[in-house]
Every structure is written in structure tokens, then in C-alpha cells.
User: Which sequence fits this backbone?
């Protein structure tokens, strides 16, 4: 008598092997749809009476035991839905002569289908889909004469479809999609007279569609999308009267669409897009009264759209994109009330948009783009209240936009660009509360921008460019909080100033106001934190560019042809006036500067006009007292081959090569032939009052700004020989903090320890010394000449290296303060006090620490590498107004051991 | 000039890719995977029809000028809940990922670090947990990263801090920057032996 084991346990580990070994009379093992884990026990094969093994939908792992082949009574083996079942299908399963169902879908079964399966003469269902099966489909499957369902989709099967499958007279469903099958669809498939569904999509099949398919009078679905099938669609297919789904898209089919297809009165879906079909769309398709979706896009179809198509009362999707369809849109379109999606884009359709379109109350998506439509948009469009997407772009449509558009409250995208629309932009568009993209560019719209557009509270993109719009930008546009993608108003005749409210558009990515007649300053744009692209060129803007990151990153192209728009100056007043005269030459000079500076070796910071004048005199007179008695200090970080005096001499107008946001850059040729760039910082607070005093304080401010800037640009530019980019130096700008000069110190420290320049030809891959040291992790980064030092010293150098890495942390907040650095260096020093000689890193004798080295041509003892920076800091706090921070590339002679 | 050259090169390669891309709808699949994981009470994703050739006509999805590649996903303030699908990482041309102001939960999938073209990622004001994946260190074009007002926690991976971000907002989360000392990680412990470093720094 039959015994069944049907546990109600939710979780049962198959570990009952010994038990199974004794259940000789077990016939049904139904353990499906639990959370069973473990393997399929080999001992199951001892239950020789088993008829049904149902293990599907568990978490069983491991292989299918070949011993199951001994189960000669087995009718159903279903182990699908166990993602961890692996290994091959055992050949021995071919011995289970009574097997009717073999289900291993959705497992990780691999290997090929064993030919022995062909011996399963009673097999009705072979369901091994979504696994890792490879190899070819064995022709022997043609022997499984009882086979009804053959599901082998989503595998890696290769080879061709065996013609032997044509012997399967009872086959109803043949699903082989998403494999790597090649070759032609066998003509013999037409012998499978029971076939209802064929799906060969997503393979690499070639050849033609077999004519024999017409004999499959039960065929409901024929799908071969995404293959390389060529030839034409056989007219005999029209004999398959039950065909509901015909999907032959994305193949190489050519020729005409056979008019006979009109006989397929059950056809629901006909997809033939992305082929090379030609000729006109047969009007007979209008007889396929059940047709719901017709997509013939991306072919070479010609002729006009047959009016009969619009008699189809179930048609919801009509897509004819990218063909060569000409003629008019038939008035009959209005009778196809079921239409939801109508896309006729990219054809050669002429005439006007029929008024009857207003009958399409279900229409959701209307794409008439890139055709040759002319005339006005009919008022009746306002009746298509379900419309969400309207694309009229790229036609010759004219006249005003109908006011009725405003009743389409569901519209999300309205693109009427590149037409000949004229008149004002309807203020009523403000009622389109769902609108997210409004594109009206390249038309002849005139008049002002309606302030009501600000009521489109979901607007993300507003493109009104290349029209004839006049007046000023309505302040209300600043209320569109959602405007994040773009605001493009370029190429109009807009005037007036940028309203302050624009500063509220803080999510905006792109702003283009170019080619208008706008005036005033750009201050309202300074708070647009999210801007990635900005173009205000060809206007009459004046004043100063806001001093923020974005503006420093933009290229001068974005600002061109704005009389009176000066380069980066923080405040108005004299500084601006001084700059304006030079504007025309500025960009040229900056370009020149880049060229000249290829030989450049250094950046120096020189401050204060009055200070400079004073300094020049004093340097000449008194070398030894540099420092205390001077209004500024000269603190080179490395050995210099020139004197301050030589630098001063070059600060004349003739040598100006450009102006940056923080100062004027001079080209300075030294006595030894070296060419350096010298930047003189702008005074930043200038009033009309006492110039001298004000400038002096201004000097201090701009100094600290510059020092901060230097730190934050990571010195990559400054230190690179022959790759100078003054203009874009702020491109690298990050957050400015008081920690940024600590970075410089770290770089110097690394230079000292590694004996390398920041960008050094001996560093592989062109890495910056900082990145290189980070990448390497050991002693190898130290200057080889240092490695002969005692081990204790090397250890200290590594400690100092660690400190240097702290200083060059890419996040300024994480960098230690100079006070901390000093403390850490002292720690090293403490340890080392007993080693008499090696006081290179830290100490530097007080006598030469700061600046007492001028007499020797600017040579600074290399031992004081840590001291100058600390003094620079001191300089800042002391309000000293002059400093030279020179990181001279050529002085790679700075080495610890070279003293 | 160089710009023109390179942009026309880009254009050509886009054209070249066009045909390839048309054959598959991997970006659409990725977006559908996203859609399947979220609940969308406002039916804002209603137009996302997986049977379409490309997702370029779906609302709140923006493609490039050739209607080939998805460059924006604007789904801020849509009341979406659920988790972020790792498949979102399969949008190689995406520049803007705007998912702010929803109720998205779970972890940020590390696959988002594959979005090589990303300029802006706004995940702020959600219920996201876990940390920012270190894979974000690959997002070299990223300029805006806002993850504030989430349940994120942990030490922000160094890779993320090393990005050249214009805006990085992680306020109202439990994220924090690594301590200074961790900078020494790149050196063996021996390098720091016999010292008194351990103490306070900042």
C-alpha cells in the first residue's frame, strides 16, 4: 500500500539517510516548499518503490545522486528552486524509464543535457530553465515522443536546434529563449502539430523563418526577438489562425510585411521593430481586430499610415518610430479611442496635426517629433487629458501654443523645441503642475517670460533658449525649488539684471544666460552651490565675479564678451576699476602666461606695494638684519639661487603676464637665467580713505587668503615644472581652513626625507611624492643616501615621515596643528638627544633658522626644514606683511645628509 | 579646439555604442530592479514600462541627447520606501542620482561605487543605515555627496574623504571621520616603536 511522507515541519534537514534506506515501500516523497537544507541523500535510491520525489523550493545543496537512476518506478523528479543544487545531470537518470516529469529549474545545474534523456519515452515535461546548462541540445530528445513541455530557457546552451525535435508530435510549448543557440530554425518544427508556444528569443539564430510554421494551426505565440534571422516574414504565417503574439523584432528581416497577416484575427501583439522591413504598412492590419500593440519602429517602411489601422478598437500602442513614413496623419486617428501610446517620431510625415486627436481621451504619450508637420497645434489637444508626455520637437509647427494645453494637468514633459512657434509663451502653462520638463527652445516665441511658470512646482528643466524673448527674468523663477536640471535662457533678447531670487535655485546644475543683453552683476549666482555648468557670455554684465568655488572653476569662455566683467575680485571699489582697463588683454595674457611659464620653477608670494618699495631699498642696504627691522620677513623654504632684490626689480607692468583672483602675476627673469612667476596679492579691503594704512591691512588679509589657497590646492600645480596652470589653480580648490599650510609643510618634510621633488622623474607613474609615499610603505621611500645612517636615526626618519603624512592628509580637518606637529617632533627629539650629531630634522640652529642667509645668495641651511614653516605661522599672527614661500623645484639638492 | 575634438570623439563613440545599446535594455533592467524594490504610493514610477526599448521615455529618467544612456534619475520627494537595488550600479552614464526626501532604508549598496560618471548623489533625508561604501572612492567625477539626515553610522572610509568633493554633507547621521592616528596605518607598527605618541592629538 502507498506510503507518503509529508512532514509539516518547516525546517527539516535531510539527514535521515539511514531511515530512507529502510523505506522500501515509500512511493511519494513530498518535501517541497520548505526550508530544507543539506544534500539529497544517496540512500533515497534504496527506496525502490519511489514514484514521486518532490523536493522543489527548498535550500537543498549538492549534486543529484546518480544512484537515483536505480529508481525504475520513478515518475516524477522535481528538485527545482534549490539554488545550491550543483553538478551535472547524471546520465543514469536515463534509466528511470517511467519518468514523466524532470524538473531542475532555477538550480545551478551545469554541464550538458545527457543524451540518455532520449530514452525517457514517457517524459512529458523537461523543465530545466534558469540554470547553468551548457553544450548542445541532444538530438535524442526527439525520441521522447510523449514530450509536451520543453523548457530550457535561460541557460548557456549552444549549437543549433536539432531538427529531430520535429518528431515531437505532442510538443505544445517549446521555450529555448536566452541561450547561445545558432543556426537556422529547423523546417521540421512545422511537424510538431501540437505546438502552441514557441519562444526562441535572445539567441543567435540565423536563417529564415520556416514556411512550415503556417501548418501549426494551434500556434498562439511565435517569438524570435533578438536573433539574426533574415529573409522575409512568410505570408504562410497567416495560416496559423490562432496566432496571438508575433514577436520578430530585432532581427535582420527584410522585404514587405505580408498583407495576409491581416487574416490573423486573434493577433494581439505584433512586434517587428528593428529589422530591415520595407514597403508600406499593409492596410489589412486594420482587420486584426484584436490587435493591441503594433510596433514596427526602426525599419525602412515607406508610404503613409493606413487609415484603417485606426479602426482597431483595441489598439493601445502604435509605434512607428524611425522609418521613412510620409503622408499625413489620417483624420481617422480620432476613432482609435483606445490609443495610449502613439509614437510616430523620426519619419517624414507632413501635413498638420488633425483636430480629431482630441478624441483620444486615453492618450498618455504623444510623440510626433522629428517629422515635417506644419500648421498650428489644434486647440482640441486640450481634451487629451491623460497626456503625460508631449513631444512635438523638430517639426515646422507654427502659430502660438494653444492655451488649451493648460488643461493637460497630468503633462510631465512638454517638448515643442525646434519648430516655428511664435507669439508669447502662454502664461497659462503655469497650470501644468505636473510638468517636470518644459522645452520650448529654437522657436520664435516673443514677449516676456511669464512669471506664472513659477507655479509649475515640479519643474526640473526649463529651456527657453534661442527664441525672441525680451524683458527681464521674472524674479518668481527663483521660487521653483525643484528646478535642478537646467535653466537655459540663452540666445534671446533678455535684458535687466539677474533677480536676487535666482539665488534660491540651489539645486540647479546648469545655467545658461549667454547671448542676451543682461546687465548688472552676477552676485545672485554666487549661492548656486550645485552649479556644474554656467554660461553668461555675450551679455552686458559688469561688476565682479562672485568669489566662490564655482566661478574659479569656470573657463573664461563662459564669461567672454561681457564688457566690464572683471576677473575675480572679492570686493568692488578701486580694485575693480584698476582691472577693467586690462580686461581685453587679460585672457590673452593668461594664455601667454601659460606658455611662458613652462620654464617656470617657482611660485613666490610677494605682498604689499608700499612694503615692496620699502623692502627694495632696505635689502640693498642691510642684509644682516632682515627680519626684525623689516616690515616683512623673507622666509625661503629651500635653497634659492636668486635674491629678493632680483625679484623686486621685475615687478613692473611690462612683466605682467596675467591677473588671477588674488593677485597679479609677473614674469621675473633672474640673473642666472631662471624664469620664475611672482604673484603680488591684491589688497582686499580698500576704501577711499587712507590708502597706505588700508592697503597694509588689506595686504595681511590677502596674504592669509593666499596661504590658505596654496594649502588647499595641494601644491601639485605649484610644484610641477613645466605644467603650470595659473588659470585653473582654483579648480583644485577644496575647503579652505587654517590647516592648509600644514600641507605645505608636510610636502617639504617629505621632500627632505625622500630627496625627491614633489613631481620627480624618478617616481614611477608620474605620481606626486605624497601619493608615492602613501603607496610605498617602507624604508624604500627614504633618500638612499640616508640609508647608511644608524638604525636609530632611520627609525626617527620614519617617525618624521609619519608626521609628514599626517600633514598631507587630504582632509584639512584631519591635519594636526603646527603646535601638535612641534610636540610630535619634540617627542622624536627627546628620544634622540643622546645622538649628538643628528640634529637635522628638528633643531636648525636658531641663528640661521629664519632668514639670516640672504648674503649667501639665499641659501638656507638645509637643516632647518621644519623651522621655517612654523615661523611662517608666526609671521601670520604677527601681522607681518611680507613673506616668500618658495618651493623651488631646482633645489633638489636639499637633502638631509648633504650638510 | 581640443575640447571640440574630444567632444566629437565622444559623439562618435556614442553613435557607435548606439547600435550596441539598442540591442539590450540593461539600463532599463537596472531601473526596473530598483522599482521592484521600492513601494511607490504616488505611482511616480508608473511610466516605467520594462517592455520599452529604452528607459528614455520613462518619467523622471533623463537620457543623453542621443536618447541612449540614462544620465539622470530624479526621484526626490516621491515618498518611496524600500531598499536600494544594487543594480543601480549598472547605469554607467548616470550623472545625477537624486533620491532625497524619501523613506528608503537598508544599506547603501556598494555597487553604487561603479557609477563612474556620477556628478551628484543626493541620498539625504531617508532612513538609510550602515556606512558609506568604500567603493565610493571610485566615483572620481563626484562633486556633490549628500547623505545627511539618515541613520548612517560608522567611520567614513578614507577613500570617500579622499574624493575631491565640492559638497559633502553627512550631518544628522552617526558618521564620523577617522581619528588622526589612523593615518599611521600605512606604516608598520615598528616604525613608531619606543615613543610616546599614543596620546592626544587634536
Assistant:
Amino acid at each position: 500500500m502507498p506510503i507518503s511522507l509529508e512532514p509539516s515541519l518547516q525546517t527539516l534537514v535531510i539527514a535521515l539517510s539511514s531511515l530512507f534506506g529502510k523505506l522500501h515501500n515509500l512511493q511519494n516523497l513530498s518535501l517541497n516548499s520548505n526550508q530544507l537544507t543539506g544534500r539529497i541523500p544517496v540512500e533515497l535510491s534504496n527506496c525502490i518503490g519511489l514514484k514521486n520525489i518532490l523536493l522543489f523550493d527548498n535550500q537543498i545543496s549538492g549534486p543529484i545522486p546518480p544512484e537515483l537512476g536505480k529508481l525504475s518506478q520513478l515518475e516524477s523528479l522535481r528538485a527545482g528552486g534549490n539554488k545550491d543544487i550543483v553538478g551535472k545531470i547524471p546520465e543514469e537518470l536515463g534509466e528511470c524509464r517511467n519518468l514523466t516529469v524532470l524538473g531542475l529549474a532555477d538550480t545551478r545545474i551545469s554541464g550538458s543535457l545527457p543524451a540518455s534523456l532520449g530514452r525517457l519515452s514517457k517524459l512529458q515535461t523537461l523543465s530545466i530553465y534558469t540554470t547553468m546548462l551548457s553544450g548542445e541540445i541532444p538530438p535524442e530528445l526527439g525520441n521522447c515522443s510523449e514530450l509536451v513541455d520543453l523548457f530550457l530557457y535561460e541557460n548557456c546552451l549552444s549549437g543549433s536546434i536539432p531538427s529531430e525535435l520535429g518528431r515531437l508530435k505532442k510538443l505544445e510549448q517549446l521555450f529555448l529563449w536566452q541561450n547561445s543557440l545558432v543556426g537556422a530554425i529547423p523546417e521540421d518544427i512545422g511537424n510538431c502539430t501540437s505546438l502552441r508556444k514557441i519562444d526562441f528569443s535572445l539567441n543567435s539564430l540565423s536563417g529564415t523563418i520556416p514556411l512550415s510554421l503556417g501548418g501549426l494551426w494551434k500556434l498562439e505565440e511565435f517569438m524570435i526577438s533578438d536573433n539574426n534571422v533574415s529573409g522575409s516574414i512568410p505570408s504562410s504565417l497567416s495560416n496559423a489562425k490562432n496566432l496571438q503574439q508575433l514577436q520578430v523584432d530585432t532581427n535582420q528581416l527584410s522585404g514587405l510585411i505580408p498583407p495576409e497577416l491581416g487574416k490573423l484575427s486573434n493577433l494581439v501583439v505584433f512586434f517587428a521593430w528593428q529589422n530591415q522591413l520595407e514597403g508600406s504598412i499593409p492596410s489589412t492590419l486594420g482587420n486584426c481586430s484584436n490587435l493591441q500593440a503594433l510596433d514596427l519602429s526602426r525599419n525602412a517602411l515607406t508610404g503613409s499610415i493606413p487609415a484603417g489601422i485606426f479602426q482597431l478598437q483595441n489598439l493601445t500602442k502604435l509605434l512607428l518610430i524611425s522609418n521613412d513614413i510620409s503622408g499625413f496623419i489620417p483624420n481617422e486617428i480620432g476613432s482609435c479611442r483606445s490609443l495610449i501610446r502613439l509614437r510616430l517620431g523620426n519619419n517624414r510625415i507632413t501635413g498638420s496635426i488633425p483636430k480629431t486627436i482630441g478624441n483620444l481621451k486615453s492618450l498618455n504619450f504623444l510623440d510626433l517629433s522629428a517629422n515635417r508637420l506644419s500648421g498650428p497645434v489644434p486647440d482640441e489637444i486640450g481634451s487629451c487629458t491623460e497626456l503625460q508626455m508631449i513631444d512635438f520637437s523638430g517639426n515646422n509647427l507654427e502659430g502660438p501654443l494653444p492655451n488649451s494645453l493648460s488643461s493637460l494637468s497630468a503633462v510631465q514633459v512638454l517638448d515643442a523645441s525646434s519648430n516655428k512657434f511664435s507669439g508669447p509663451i502662454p502664461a497659462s502653462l503655469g497650470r501644468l503642475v505636473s510638468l517636470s520638463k518644459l522645452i520650448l527652445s529654437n522657436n520664435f516665441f516673443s514677449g516676456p517670460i511669464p512669471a506664472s511658470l513659477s507655479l509649475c512646482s515640479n519643474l526640473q528643466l526649463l529651456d527657453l533658449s534661442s527664441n525672441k524673448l525680451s524683458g527681464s527674468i521674472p524674479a518668481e523663477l527663483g521660487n521653483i525649488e525643484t528646478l535642478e536640471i537646467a535653466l537655459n535662457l540663452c540666445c534671446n533678447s533678455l535684458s535687466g539684471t539677474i533677480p536676487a531670487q535666482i539665488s534660491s535655485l540651489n539645486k540647479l546644475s546648469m545655467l545658461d544666460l549667454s547671448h542676451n543683453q543682461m546687465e548688472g552683476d552676477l552676485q545672485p549666482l554666487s549661492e548656486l552651490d550645485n552649479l556644474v555648468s554656467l554660461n553668461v557670455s555675450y551679455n552686458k554684465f559688469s561688476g565682479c565675479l562672485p568669489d566662490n568655488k564655482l566661478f574659479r572653476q569656470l573657463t573664461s569662455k563662459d564669461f567672454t564678451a561681457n564688457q566690464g566683467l572683471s576677473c575675480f575680485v572679492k570686493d568692488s571699489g578701486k580694485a575693480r576699476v584698476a582691472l577693467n582697463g586690462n580686461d581685453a588683454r587679460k585672457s590673452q595674457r593668461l594664455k601667454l602666461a601659460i606658455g611662458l611659464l613652462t620654464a617656470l620653477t617657482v611660485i613666490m608670494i610677494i605682498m604689499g606695494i608700499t612694503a615692496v618699495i620699502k623692502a627694495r631699498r632696505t635689502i640693498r642696504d642691510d642684509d644682516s638684519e632682515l627680519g626684525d627691522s623689516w616690515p616683512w620677513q623673507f622666509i625661503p623654504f629651500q635653497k634659492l639661487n636668486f635674491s629678493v632684490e632680483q625679484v623686486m626689480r621685475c615687478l613692473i607692468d611690462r612683466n605682467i603676464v596675467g591677473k588671477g583672483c588674488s593677485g597679479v602675476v609677473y614674469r621675473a627673469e633672474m640673473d642666472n637665467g631662471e624664469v620664475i612667476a611672482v604673484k603680488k596679492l591684491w589688497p582686499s579691503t580698500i576704501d577711499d580713505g587712507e590708502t597706505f594704512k588700508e592697503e597694509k591691512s588689506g595686504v595681511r588679509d590677502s596674504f592669509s587668503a593666499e596661504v590658505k589657497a596654496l594649502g588647499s590646492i595641494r601644491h601639485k600645480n605649484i610644484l610641477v615644472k613645466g605644467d603650470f596652470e595659473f588659470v585653473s589653480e582654483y579648480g583644485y580648490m577644496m575647503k579652505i581652513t587654517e590647516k592648509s599650510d600644514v600641507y605645505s609643510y608636510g610636502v617639504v618634510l617629505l621632500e627632505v626625507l625622500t630627496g625627491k621633488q614633489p613631481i620627480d622623474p624618478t617616481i614611477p607613474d608620474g605620481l606626486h611624492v605624497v601619493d608615492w609615499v602613501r603607496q610605498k610603505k617602507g624604508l624604500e621611500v627614504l633618500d638612499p643616501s640616508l640609508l647608511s645612517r644608524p638604525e636609530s636615526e632611520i627609525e626617527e626618519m620614519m617617525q618624521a615621515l609619519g608626521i609628514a603624512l599626517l600633514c598631507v592628509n587630504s582632509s584639512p580637518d584631519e591635519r594636526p596643528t603646527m603646535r601638535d606637529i612641534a610636540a610630535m617632533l619634540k617627542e622624536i627629539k627627546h628620544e634622540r638627544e643622546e645622538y649628538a650629531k643628528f640634529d637635522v630634522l628638528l633643531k636648525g640652529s636658531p641663528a640661521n633658522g629664519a632668514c639670516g642667509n640672504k648674503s649667501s645668495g639665499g641659501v638656507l641651511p638645509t637643516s632647518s626644514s621644519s623651522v621655517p614653516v612654523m615661523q611662517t605661522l608666526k609671521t601670520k599672527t604677527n601681522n607681518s606683511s611680507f613673506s616668500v614661500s618658495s618651493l623651488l623645484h631646482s633645489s633638489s639638492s636639499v637633502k638631509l645628509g648633504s650638510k | 579646439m581640443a575640447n571640440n575634438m574630444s567632444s566629437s570623439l565622444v559623439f562618435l563613440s556614442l553613435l557607435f555604442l548606439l547600435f550596441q545599446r539598442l540591442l539590450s535594455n540593461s539600463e532599463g533592467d537596472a531601473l526596473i530592479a530598483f522599482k521592484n524594490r521600492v513601494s511607490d504610493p504616488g505611482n511616480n514610477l508608473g511610466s516605467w514600462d520594462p517592455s520599452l526599448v529604452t528607459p528614455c521615455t520613462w518619467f523622471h529618467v533623463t537620457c543623453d541627447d542621443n536618447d541612449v544612456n540614462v544620465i539622470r534619475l530624479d526621484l526626490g520627494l516621491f515618498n518611496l520606501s524600500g531598499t536600494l537595488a544594487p543594480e543601480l550600479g549598472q547605469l554607467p552614464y548616470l550623472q545625477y542620482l537624486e533620491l532625497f526626501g524619501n523613506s528608503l532604508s537598508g544599506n547603501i549598496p556598494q555597487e553604487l561605487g561603479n557609477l563612474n560618471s556620477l556628478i551628484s548623489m543626493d541620498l539625504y533625508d531617508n532612513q538609510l543605515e550602515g556606512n558609506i561604501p568604500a567603493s565610493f572612492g571610485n566615483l572620481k567625477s563626484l562633486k556633490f555627496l549628500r547623505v545627511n539626515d539618515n541613520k548612517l553610522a560608522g567611520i567614513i572610509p578614507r577613500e570617500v574623504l579622499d574624493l575631491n568633493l565640492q559638497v559633502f554633507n553627512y550631518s544628522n547621521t552617526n558618521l564620523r571621520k577617522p581619528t588622526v592616528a589612523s593615518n599611521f596605518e600605512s606604516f608598520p607598527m615598528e616604525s613608531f616603536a619606543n615613543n610616546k605618541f599614543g596620546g592626544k592629538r587634536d
Observations:
- The two ends of chain B are 49 Å apart (CA to CA).
